[in-house]
Amino acid sequence: MTEEERQWIRTRDELIAAVEALGFPKELGYEAAKNLGSPKAMRRMLGYLYNVKPKKIELVVDEMLAIRSEIEAWRQKKASEQANERYNELLYYGIDGEPEE
Prior knowledge:
- The chain is mainly α and 101 residues long.
- The protein is 80% helix and 0% strand.
- The protein has one domain (3-93).
């Protein structure tokens, strides 16, 4: 098992414990961890749970979806920036790789 896998498991377990501490079923913690996908996203969710202490399950799910949405927007932004960079290189260097004059 790699260190990344161990970190993911530790963060997942902490998320599940935080969800249970708020009185929600541990299955919600499992699903949140699975949907968030990365330790960084799970830590963001943990910050929300520790600071806000939501009383309704809907608020937990809504925050999870908001975090996922922000991650997807970031990915799209990075893909757009990369495509724009390639396009600008094509405009500058042309198809043959020589700078346009």
